[in-house]
Amino acid sequence: MPISKQLLNKIKNSPIKPGCYIYKDLKGKILYIGKAVNLRNRTSSYFNNLKRLDPKIAVMVKQIRDVEYITTDNELEALILETNLIKKYKPKYNRLMKDDKNYSWLMITKGEDFPKIELVREQKIKNADYFGPYVNPSPIKRALKRLRSIFPYRSCNRKIYFYKENDKNKFYSSDKKPCLYYHLRLCDAPCTGDIVKASYRKNINNIKRFFRSQKFKIIDELNREMQSSAQKKKYEEASLLRDKLEDLSYIAQRIRIEKDMDEFIWKKKKKSYEITALKNLLNKLKIKNLNFKKDLKIECYDISNISGKSATGSMIVFINGKPDKSLYRKFKIKTKDEPDDFSMLKEVFKRRFKINKSKKDRSFNNYPDIIIVDGGKGQLSSVKSIIESKKLAIATIGLAKKEEEIFKSENGNFKRITLKKGSPEYFLIQRIRDEAHRFAIKYHKILRSKKQVKSVLDDIPGVGDTIKKRLLKAFGSARNIKNASLDEIQSIVKNRKTAQNIKKLL
């Protein structure tokens, strides 16, 4: 029987989002359940050329009379939904197409002081939590790779336990020498007894919560912990929490962008979409004497620091709604070494908008049509005075971080402008702000890493810039270098005498 026009029309208009698709036969019985990053692309592939399909799939496709879609926020959640649906409905063709391979499960052990995380084929261990089953383990492996750098855990088979709760004198480990994963900052080395059970299990519980779609709760908790550590002047602890927060926020940020943006429109109709977004934004802002023109330039600024240390400013540039990375600039803050975003923004703006135009950097001579400052009324006020003192007629707005609220100064008062969520202009503003944030964080991390290694390695004989870079890349921090064995250090620096100097002087 030929495929009906009704079904083909449903495929043609399917969602352009991550999620699951459910194929049904004439009687409404489920034939097959699959997941996709882009449902429209995936489901269309079944019907584009039947002759090229695997024989098993071709037989199934000829029976399809209807399709149902369930959208999700991202690929991982689509994968989790797919496994639950398959487990519930047990579709015929899901069983036939697995080629006699077992599904994968994510196993987190429960009966140990320091639980392990593994991908397994069978649920052999009873005292464990299992997530799955997963038809394709690749997305799970990618998620774990990212999560392990944020929430380290062990993957070894060492026997590790406390005779008495968190008492190092009552601790046993079959091998107390940290392995390579410790130096790569992917494990906290519970084998040494230096990490208590509660701290280790907190990491494990956060990974469980991530797979239960509670990622935004984790982000909120990390943010509160970071602020508390900074207030107590525990700067190293705050720095580590900030790194975790940035990495986890980045993953969640990608998810949020997928939710708010129709990828098909952006990729296939990019030019017209960007123009629409710009026109709508100008209309919303109601900026006088500024209409849509050929090369409309937007600059966005952000500050990144931890308690004022290694502070950086970023300037990113969008031309006609598209990023122009050749015009991006970064600023190392010189005047402040304590938390003060307002003063730091002022410094950046004074350096950016010098009246004696730069001969070395001619791109600085071309001022923007619109300036966006990442922040609310305070940040906007701090830079508005500089623009006015330079007698520059540039539309300047502030962007609050949570709700994409825009603040515009009019006659000494602040006007709040709210953009419709999911609109072209909303996504454009969000995209610009996130890019400025990413660029500032990247430079901030570079400065912090250089400062950390420089302070402890510069006076060691035989250690130059090249070796410092190698050590940082291998171990991640001066603390990890200090804790590394002589052989591990020598494998990086090659020269044994230099390795001995590093080990001795650290």
Describe the structure.
- There is one protein chain.
- Helices cover 47% and strands 18% of the residues.
- The chain is of the alpha+beta class.
- The protein has 4 domains: 5-96, GIY-YIG endonuclease (3-Layer(aba) Sandwich), CATH 3.40.1440; 104-258, no CATH class; 265-438, 2-Layer Sandwich (Nucleotidyltransferase, domain 5); 458-505, Orthogonal Bundle (DNA polymerase, domain 1), CATH 1.10.150.
- Helix 6 (138-150) packs antiparallel against helix 10 (235-260), helix 13 runs parallel beside helix 14 and helix 18 packs across helix 19.
- It is flat, with a radius of gyration of 27 Å.
Write a short abstract of this structure.
This protein has 506 residues and is α+β, with helices and mostly antiparallel strands. The chain has helices at residues 5-12, 39-48, 55-61, 75-89, 92-96, 138-150, 180-183, 197-211, 215-231, 235-260, 263-268, 270-285, 341-352, 377-389, 424-457, 465-475, 478-483, 486-493, 496-505; strands at 19-24, 30-36, 66-71, 104-109, 117-120, 128-134, 160-162, 171-173, 297-306, 309-319, 322-323, 329-332, 370-374, 395-399, 405-410, 413-418. The chain folds into four domains: 5-96, GIY-YIG endonuclease; 104-258, no CATH class; 265-438, Nucleotidyltransferase, domain 5 (2-Layer Sandwich); 458-505, 5' to 3' exonuclease, C-terminal subdomain (DNA polymerase, domain 1), CATH 1.10.150.20.
